[in-house]
Amino acid sequence: MSQVTTMTQAMTVTTIDPWALPSMPVVNYRRFPNCPCIYFAVKGSHVLYIGKAYSGLATRWKGHHRLAQLAKEGGVNIAWLEMNATDDELFDLEVALINHYDPPLNFNSKLGKRHSAKDPAKARGGGKRVTIELSPSTFADLDFVATQKGMATSRHIGIIIETHHETPAYGELVEEALTHPADGTLRP
After folding, report:
1. pTM for the whole thing?
2. Per-residue confidence of the chain (188 residues) as pLDDT tens digits?
3. What's the fold here for domain 1-111?
4. Domain locations in the chain?
5. DSSP for 52-92?
């Protein structure tokens, strides 16, 4: 059983050792404990990603946007520090740890900066609102899944789009659009 850490205990980013924490391979996400925590995706001596789980680690990883990527990477473990902390305290600690460890997967490539703002909306890059038109059946499917995951439908759709945006297939679409644009001009 892991020890529960409180924010009142002497803790700094330099005293938290991800490799000394309880951990499991990311592919075993269904067996993760359901505790609020800060978690680290680690591979060998590298921290690849840092996140927080307000409602529990198992719940967070059931639909995590990095799950497929990290599982495909191979050899990735999720280490966790179980916390008895407020949402704001978890967020602040996550930001401090991201700034300390500089994990590559916490990078917002569109903005060229880390997710490190105090405001959660800014931490996600501020986001841009778009309007999309979906068939009623597609929306119903997306809404059902979002409800099952306990998130807003718009957030669920955003995660799907952002996850697809990070795939090699999308990169190929961008390359195709750059080299063969609709207006007939060739871009370098």
Report:
1. 0.57
2. 445 555 544 567 888 999 999 999 999 999 999 999 999 999 999 999 999 998 889 988 988 888 889 999 899 999 999 988 888 888 888 888 988 888 988 865 443 444 444 444 444 445 566 778 888 888 888 888 877 777 677 777 877 777 666 566 666 766 676 666 666 555 44
3. GIY-YIG endonuclease (3.40.1440)
4. 1-111, 129-188
5. EESS-HHHHHHT-TTHHHHHHH-S-EEEEEEEE--HHHHHH
